[in-house]
Design brief:
The structure is a single chain. By secondary structure, the chain is an alpha/beta fold. It is 44% helix and 11% strand. The strands form two sheets. The protein has a five-stranded parallel β-sheet, sandwiched between helices. A four-stranded parallel β-sheet has the order 4-3-2-5, sandwiched between helices. Strand 3, helix 4 and strand 4 form a beta-alpha-beta unit. Helix 3 runs parallel beside helix 4.
Length: 423
């Protein structure tokens, strides 16, 4: 392969996932539309808060409005963060079996969290009913009949990731990407499909003359896009860039518990908007067991990158593809992964873009899979005493210490005095 670029989202706004981008943008855009102002006219978050408060008071309403969503973790955390930043109230419903760490992360942002006795998709239905019954505003990334505006806004927010990738290509630091754009291959994980659709739409629009191969990957028990792609293949349809978009009325879904450690991808019903884009913009549909994601987690951990199960699955698939390509040089391999590698035409000119969509959002499972705590997160707090050098130098020293610890297999460093960490 020529190159592999990993888009890292493990520490976005210190919330460990990309979802906060869509939640924040959609919430802000919804508020602006409600007030009748252009989002581009805002000067700051404080400006939006002040205008919203003034508007609500002029309407005789409580300045604090309640927004509700259903989530398996990251989307709800992003929405709760947005509500906190904008001074609003978030109600977050979560499916049964949700890890306690994920619940605490959302509660720490001031949201009211309720864990239901149902799986993800029925929990979404509960949020829809609660919004209608209690006068809350639903902020959900799943589009369905009569509910498309907010999911579109969420997807628009997600395009920031693709814009950042392209913007970085124009700067030499930390690494020049101009030589790897446009990508020849993109590997994207899929839940309801909003992130994947936003990236596919952006890159196909920005590089219309480039033959970009898009592979979508889902959990074995929650492969809602896969079953639709499989149906089209059996019918002899070619979804890629078809002039006859698939009909949403024919969309298949997955029912049941959707058991997987990739909880961020455990969705049985695709988003209506994302479905059309992905059915017409993807080249390959892949379903995999949890071990593929676990392999990705372990590999990223080894180079100091924290990734959760849903975040690492693309890297796990890429590792399997690389192993098969190397093996096929020595012997014939007729496995499914070998067939995928062959259809992707991976070679020394391949420029591959893959996404780490989340950090270690469940430390307990991370320990079980990787056998260690996540790599230390970047230093964000103010140091306890005044520094005799710049914060940049401080960060450089911390980075050197952590790299040396990893090299020596040291898991913990106990600092006995604040001054010792500086010198």
């Amino acid at each position: 392969m020529h190159s592999v670029v990993l888009k890292g989202e493990s520490d976005r706004f210190h919330q460990q996932a990309f979802k906060v981008v869509g939640g924040f943008y959609s919430l802000s855009a919804w508020i602006c539309k409600e007030m009748g102002v252009a989002i581009a006219s805002l000067e700051s978050i404080e400006d939006l808060q002040a205008r919203w408060t003034e508007y609500r008071i002029s309407q005789g309403a409580n300045p604090v409005h309640t927004f509700i969503t259903a989530t398996d973790g990251n989307h709800g955390r992003g929405m709760a963060y947005a509500c906190k930043m904008l001074g609003q109230q978030a109600v977050v419903l979560m499916p049964r079996g949700t890890a306690a760490r994920r619940v605490r992360n959302i509660e720490a942002l001031g949201a009211r969290v309720e864990v239901t006795d149902k799986s993800y998709d029925p929990t979404v239905e509960m949020a829809i009913r609660r919004a209608a019954a209690e006068g809350f505003t639903l902020i959900q990334d799943l589009a369905f009949e009569g509910y498309e505006e907010v999911p579109k806004l969420i997807m628009q927010g997600y395009t920031l990731l693709a814009q950042e990738i392209c913007a970085q290509s124009r700067h030499p630091s930390p690494a020049p990407l101009s030589a790897v754009l446009p990508p020849t291959h993109i590997i994207l994980q899929v839940g309801v499909g909003c992130l994947a659709a936003s990236q596919v739409g952006y890159f196909r629009s920005r590089f219309p003359n480039s033959d970009i191969h898009v592979t979508l990957i889902e959990p074995l028990n929650a492969a809602c896009l896969y079953v639709n792609g499989e149906r089209l293949a059996k019918a002899g349809s070619v979804p890629l860039l078809s002039s006859h978009p698939t009909l949403v009325s024919e969309m298949l879904s997955i029912e049941g518990d959707l058991e997987t450690t990739m909880v961020g991808l455990a969705c049985g019903v695709p988003s209506k908007i994302a479905y059309d884009i992905l059915m017409n913009g993807a080249n390959a549909f892949v379903k995999c067991d949890d071990e593929v994601a676990h392999e990705g987690m372990r590999s990223l951990h080894a180079v100091g990158v924290a990734a959760g199960e849903s975040g690492a699955v693309g890297v796990g698939l890429l590792l399997q593809l690389a192993a098969v390509v190397n093996k096929s040089k020595r012997s014939a391999d007729e496995s499914a992964i070998a067939g995928l590698a062959k259809s992707m035409n991976l070679n020394s000119f391949s420029r591959i873009l893959v996404y780490n969509t989340e950090g270690a959002t469940d430390d307990v499972n991370y320990m079980r899979v990787v056998g260690s705590l996540p790599p230390s997160r970047p230093f964000h707090l103010n140091p306890p005493i005044s520094l005799p050098f710049t914060m940049a130098e401080y960060g450089h020293r911390l980075s050197n210490v952590r790299a040396a610890m990893r090299a020596e297999g040291i898991s913990y460093a106990l600092i006995t005095k604040p001054e010792n960490i500086y010198y």
